[in-house]
Amino acid sequence: MAPCEPSRSVEGNFTRYLQLIVKRVFDIAASAIALFVLSPVFLLASLAIRLDTRGPIFSVKHVYCYNDQRIQVLRFRSHNHGDVTACGRFLIRTGLDQLPMLINVLSGEMSIVGLHCHLLPPPRLNDQLELSFVTRSFRAGLVSLKDPQAVADGELSRRNADLFYISHWSLLLDVKVLFQHFFSKHAYLQN
Which residues pair with 114 in a beta bridge? Predict the structure, then answer.
């Protein structure tokens, strides 16, 4: 991946800031529309979980992002006392267990396309990238950039992909990442 760019000019940062506003508007619109359109699926999944096992409908997972953000990611509950439930197996296989994450996007905790989530606080990026106001505006994403040439590197691959994403971000890059996610065998939805 290409090295990070040097600090941008004031005009460049202002332009990028306006693009981030457009990105947030897109996140709000996309998550609201998706929640509305998928509300029957949301209700059916909730009912199936309630009928399958006792307990809450949602599970909460605490994750971290590079901008020192710690969020509670919502998912449909797929486990009961550590074991995958019958309903949970279907939800995981279809990816529907992640549908409640759209609520995180709507509330502003996440973005449709953004940085990777981590179970533990990730290493800081200060040594490689200036954490300006604009940079700190990047949220964890439902979909994240993947470095196809470093799949086996795990966390290093995620870190490099996030550095590349922050340094080269544009609305066009978000569209490309979404396209790759939906139409490429190499793309993925974060766990």
Answer: 144
Closest CA to 88 of 63, 55, 129: 55
Span 71-112, pLDDT tens digits: 899 999 998 888 888 899 999 998 899 999 999 999 999 999
| Residue 144 DSSP label | E
Are 129 and 4 a contacting pair, CB within 8 Å?
Answer: yes
If you write DSSP's letter for every residue of 18-80 in order, what string do you get?
A: HHHHHHHHHHHHHHHHHHHHTHHHHHHHHHHHHHHSSS-SEEEEEEE-TTS-EEEEEEE--EE
* Residue carrying structure tokens 């196809």: 148
Burial of 42 (0-12, 13-18, 19+ CB in 10 A): buried
Using CA atoms in the order 83, 92, 140, 179, what is the torsion angle rounded to 10 degrees? 160
